Each structure stands twice: as C-alpha cells, then as structure tokens.
Amino acid sequence: MIDSKPTVTWTATDNDSGVNPDTIGITIDSGSKVTSGITKTAVTGGYRCTYAIPTALSEGNHTIKVDAQDNDGNSATQRTVSIIVDTIPPQLSITSPANNLVTKTTTVTVAGTTNDSTSSPCTVTVVLNGGAKQNVEVGSNGAFSTTLTLKEGANTIGIVSTDKAGKSTTVSRTVTLDTKAPVISAVTLSKNPVGTGDTFTISVTVTDN
Predict the structure, then answer these.
(1) Tens of pLDDT along 98-141?
(2) Whole-model pTM?
(3) How many C-beta atoms lie closer than 10 Å to residue 133's C-beta?
(4) How far is CA 121 from the centre of its chain?
(5) Contact between 89 and 122 (Cβ < 8 Å)
(6) What share of the chain is helix, strand, coil (3-state, %, to 5)?
(7) Residues 19, 65 contacting (CB under 8 angstroms)
(8) Which of 11, 79, 119, 169 is deepest in the core (most CB within 10 A)?
(9) DSSP the chain
(10) What mean pLDDT, rounded, does the chain reach?
(11) What average pLDDT does this structure show over 138-159?
C-alpha cells in the first residue's frame, strides 16, 4: 500500500435486531477505539462504514480492527486486517555497466542489486534502446544479472526495479559499441625533401567514426 492515510471501508449487519450505529468502531494498531468520524450509510440490516485515517501511518506493518454491537447488546466478532504502508521506492544499485562505457565487445552484462525494506521481493525489467521490456530474475539476496546484445554506436539501457507496492526506481546507462578500426587517411612530411642533419615533421591524419 502506497497511501499512508488510507480509507477503510467495511459493512456491519445484523438480521435480527439490527446494528447499533453508536457502537461501530475502528482501532488502529494499539490505539484507542474510534467511534467518531466514521461515515455510516444504511444498508439492509446495518451500515456500510467508511473511515479515512486522519494521521499518516508510519512505514511498515499495521493492524486495523473493526467491531460493533447489535441493538440487543450482542457484540460482533471483531474483524482484523493487516496492511503494510510503503511510500519509499526500492533501492537499485547498478554495478555493471559503467555509465558512458565505450567497448568493442558486442555484448554487455547488466548487473546490480535491488531491495525494499517493506515490500520485497522486487522485480526487475531491462529495456534496450526503447525496445521491449525484458524480465530479469532476481535472487533471494536481491542480486540480478543479464546479458544484452548492443548495436553499433550509442546504446541506452533502462533498468527498472518495482516493489510489491507498485513503486519503482529507474537507472539509465549509456554504452557505446565501437567495432570499427580507425582509418589513416593522410601522411605528410615537412620539410620534404630533407638533407642530412635536417629536422622534419611527419603528420598523420587518423579518423574514427
């Protein structure tokens, strides 16, 4: 759950004497029971209840309990639900490749680790040059690795980690593949001709696309 101030909705019904609306309550964790601020909409035999938690819950696990009594004073069995509040995106560390890497190898290894303290495990996808998403297996320790085939020139790699709460962290890397050898296009000698003991300069023009 991303929202730290969620709205809780539940229904309390009794087919005999009906539900006493004044007894409908909600308890957050170990706090005091709350009976005010609950919106109660009449339904057959009872009420549909809505309560917007007014104070942001801390990161982690929380317990919500709801209860009520009927008009004869009988208490309903308390209902409990557990939620996890997670508003922090997952951690994502890329160990390979280095950003702005230039390589002559046509493949590159994308590797790293990911973790989220409250919503693990995380899933990882990799996108090369805006193409299709590739799912990458993540180990129990959060480590992942995959190999991509590069195109000649600049390549953009997007790595996305998504936790169970749906939050994500993205890291991008640029890798340039250069498999073409440089070309010597001109050699000049200055001065030319030269005599014995003369100083001369050799100039070479080299291009690499």
Answers:
(1) 999 999 999 999 999 999 988 889 999 999 999 999 999 999 99
(2) 0.74
(3) 11
(4) 11
(5) no
(6) 0, 55, 45
(7) no
(8) 119
(9) ---SSPEEEEEEE-SSS-EEEEEEEEEETTS--B-SS-EEEEETTEEEEEEE--SPPPSEEEEEEEEEEETTSPBPPPEEEEEEE--SPPEEEEEESPTTEEES-SEEEEEEEEE-TTTPPPEEEEEETT---EEE-B-TTSEEEEEEEPPSEEEEEEEEEE-TTS-EEEEEEEEEE--PPPEEEEEEEESSS--TT---EEEEEEE--
(10) 92
(11) 97
DSSP class of residue 36? S
Report the 10 Å Cβ neighbour count for 53. 18
> What whole-number distance in Å separates Cα of residue 111 and Cα of residue 197?
59
- Distances in Å between the Cα of 91 and the Cα atoms of 88, 119, 142, 197, 205 are 9, 11, 10, 67, 48
- Which residues face 61 on adjacent strands? 84
User: In what helix (H) or strand (E) does residue 25 lie, and over which residues does it extend?
Assistant: strand 19-28
